[in-house]
Structure formats: structure tokens, C-alpha cells
TrEMBL record:
Pfam families: DUF1523. It comes from Marinovum algicola. Keywords: Membrane, Transmembrane, Transmembrane helix. This is DUF1523 domain-containing protein. The chain crosses the membrane at residues 148-169. InterPro entries: Phage_phiNM3_A0EWY4 (IPR011088).
Length: 212
């Protein structure tokens, strides 16, 4: 029973960690090599794509999507999609997809004369499932050695930890005051019933034994 309990606890926290890792903003230092518009047919991976851009028709099985192609500072390629989030989840309230694509195209460079940028994004890159992180912002930096402090992540994670701690403390108090006394009463009731059954059995054995 203990292993089952720990399995559910670990599974819960793994889901919480995956949720925050996908949703919270991340920052990559990269060099933009190209930008393009690609027609995408949505299938089983549709949950990893945003809704149609604000003002466009909904319910489409395919649509044109902006992409930003980059080489990161560690030399590895990374491709980002560029979609509006609108008023949906996650709450980035991004409506400037076309403007961002224009800025990214203006910042293209080559390996001989690199122009480094910081790309703020959310989401995951998975080649097998054909999913891409969504670029939210692009800004130029002087070098790939720029220091980035994720203040938004720090604040959100700190507030979330405080909320979980407050819920945990109140749950412990509620359990001590209400649930534990009820469980003790139930255990005492079972113990009294067990003693009564044992006493009845002893009397019956004595009674039958006396009759012999």
C-alpha cells in the first residue's frame, strides 16, 4: 500500500512539473537563419498547437503557420513556431504574430557575421511528434554570453510553492482536528467489538465445556 501511495504522489508532482515546464517562459540565445510560412495539417499533435490567430476562422484542419529557424549558441538547430495565443492558455495574450515574424526576419544573419538574439518562448520541441515551442518575443543581444535571470518564473514558482504550503498546513490542521479523532473512534469501536466477540466466544466455550 505504501508503494501505491508513493506512486501517486510522484505521478502528481511529475504532472505538475511537466505543466510548469511547458507553460512557463524559457529563453534561448540563438542566431536566426531563416523565417518561413508553412501549411500545417493538424493531427494527433493538435493539442500542442495554438488556436487560429485572432480574427481568423476556427475549426480548421490546416492553416498557414509562421516558423523561425535558428542555430542556438551551442551550435544545435532549433525551430520555433510563431502563433498567437490570444485570450487562451497559456495566458501570454500574444496578438502580434505578424510583427514578431517581421522582427525575426530583420534579425537574420550568417555564421560569418552572427547577430545574436534572445528568444522567449514556451512549449517543447519534439521531432518525433512534430511539435515546436512557440516564440513569444525576440530581442537582440550583443553576445551569446548574456546573463538571463528568469524573474517571471521565480515569482510564479515562489507563489505556487507558498499556495501549496498553505494548503498543506491547513490540511494537516483539519486532519488533526477532524479526521484523526474520527479514525480513533472507529478503531476503538472495532477494538470494543472485537473484545466483545472474544468475550462471547469465551463464554460459549465455557458454557459448552461445562455441559460436557
Amino acid at each position: 500500500m505504501r508503494y501505491i501511495k508513493w506512486f501517486f504522489i510522484l505521478a502528481f508532482w511529475a504532472l505538475v512539473g511537466a505543466f510548469f515546464h511547458y507553460t512557463l517562459p524559457q529563453h534561448d540565445v540563438a542566431r536566426i537563419t531563416d523565417t518561413e510560412i508553412r501549411r500545417v495539417d493538424f493531427g494527433e499533435n493538435s493539442i500542442f498547437w495554438s488556436s487560429p490567430d485572432s480574427g481568423n476562422a476556427t475549426g480548421q484542419v490546416n492553416r498557414d503557420v509562421f516558423f523561425i529557424q535558428t542555430i542556438r549558441d551551442n551550435g544545435r538547430p532549433m525551430v520555433y513556431r510563431n502563433e498567437d495565443t490570444g485570450w487562451g492558455w497559456p495566458p501570454y495574450f500574444k496578438f502580434d504574430t505578424a510583427n514578431l515574424q517581421t522582427e525575426a526576419a530583420d534579425l537574420r544573419s550568417t555564421s560569418d557575421n552572427p547577430r545574436w538574439v534572445v528568444i522567449r518562448h514556451y512549449g517543447w520541441r519534439n521531432e518525433f511528434l512534430s511539435i515546436y515551442p512557440n516564440a513569444v518575443d525576440v530581442r537582440r543581444v550583443d553576445s551569446p554570453d548574456v546573463t538571463i535571470i528568469p524573474w517571471t518564473n521565480i515569482i510564479i514558482l515562489t507563489l505556487t510553492a507558498l499556495v501549496f504550503w498553505a494548503i498543506y498546513v491547513r490540511w494537516r490542521r483539519f486532519r488533526r482536528r477532524r479526521i484523526d479523532p474520527m479514525l480513533e473512534d472507529v478503531e476503538e469501536g472495532f477494538a470494543d467489538a472485537s473484545d466483545a466477540v472474544k468475550g462471547t466466544g469465551s463464554r460459549m466455550r465455557g458454557w459448552f465445556g461445562g455441559r460436557k
